[in-house]
Amino acid sequence: KTGWILVGASTVAREWMVDAIRQQGDAEVLAVVSRDAARGAAFAEQFGIAASYTDLDAALAHPGADAVYISTTNELHMAQTLQAARAGKHVLCEKPLALSLEDARRMVDGCAEAGVVLGINHHLRNAASHGKVRELIRAGEIGQPLYGRVLHANNLPQHLRGWRLDAPESGGVTLDMFVHDVDTLRFLLDAEPRHVTACATSGGMTVAGLEEGLMAVIEFDNGALVQVHDAFNAPHSLSGVEIIGTKGTIFATGVMTQRPVGTISLTRDGGSIDIPVEHENLYVRSVRAFQRAMRGEGQPAATGDDGMRALATALAAQQASRSHQRVTLAG
Ligand code: NDP
């Protein structure tokens, strides 16, 4: 069995990842690490996890530990990843990978040097819906993609209205949500972002200066232009992705979510058809791909390089919205 250590007594671990690991059948959660002994112990008790630690090195020495899942707040990802890699543990890390590209590069290099797998938990590329959209595009069903739209404005749940709204290093909605959109678009389009233009709002739900709403245009290296909208403060907005090509349009409704839901329509000459999707838990798929990569079978769903590219584009969008300048990404 793969032995997992959870680093962070977090909401995402609580809501999705403990279950995703346990659903593998050949994996177990051995311990949880929290900076707060009482929080860690309560988490362990709630989920029937045998051990909790406040010291990461002690947890990494737990017998049978093979992999860590890091879901602490963003500023901690880099140091904890490097510490785990040095201890020879494979690392599945939450997004955003780090706060800067330099730190992200250190994580990717550190894991490569230690010979451990680094995966990033960009969940959306694990959705059957997004997989289907990608398949349709690759099969030429809409011709050459020309334009896209990502609708990812929602209502930040009450229990998540903490550090995302007041810690500058959280990066606001840009590092929280836009970073997922970039990863998803790279996955769907098989293309790389080249330029970003963006405007943002702040100060309603977030502290002034920290983005709560973002509208961006990404120019991809295949010529596609994509509009992206993210928000923490849009309670009645619908989510979706539209990709418009030379021969047709795909509209995926309700797919920018953690849940395995949503519908897809394909419109071409002659009308629209619904495309069937067999949904499966996104996080179960993420852990499955990661464990396969640990066994030398392929790559994690999102690699360290994917995490770095999503972060680079998110930092470019942050710069673009703050400077009111179009930002070009390094090649
Ligand atoms: P949480 O705020 O729930 O957890 C982050 C850290 O905050 C925990 O590690 C914990 O620290 C501390 N914490 C948890 N509860 C409390 C509390 N009641 N009081 C004080 N501190 C607390 O964050 P999320 O789970 O929302 O996000 C964690 C990471 O996961 C982020 O990097 C985020 O971007 C990412 N994320 C990814 C998602 C995805 O679908 N891929 C979805 C949601 C988040 P300690 O470990 O010390 O106990």
What does this molecule look like?
It is built from ten helices and 15 strands. The chain is of the alpha/beta class and about 325 residues long. It has two domains: about 1-125 and about 285-300, 3-Layer(aba) Sandwich (Rossmann fold); about 125-280 and about 310-330, Dihydrodipicolinate Reductase, domain 2, CATH 3.30.360.10. Strand 11 and strand 12 form a beta hairpin. The protein is globular. The N and C termini lie far apart (about 40 Å). Bound molecules: NADPH dihydro-nicotinamide-adenine-dinucleotide phosphate (NDP). NADPH dihydro-nicotinamide-adenine-dinucleotide phosphate binds near residues 11, 71 and 258.
CATH class of the largest domain: Alpha Beta
Distance between the termini: 41 Å
How many individual helices? 10
State the share of residues found in helices, binned by percent: 25-40%
Number of strands: 15
SSE pattern, N- to C-terminal: EHEHEHEHEHEHEHHEEEEEEEHHE
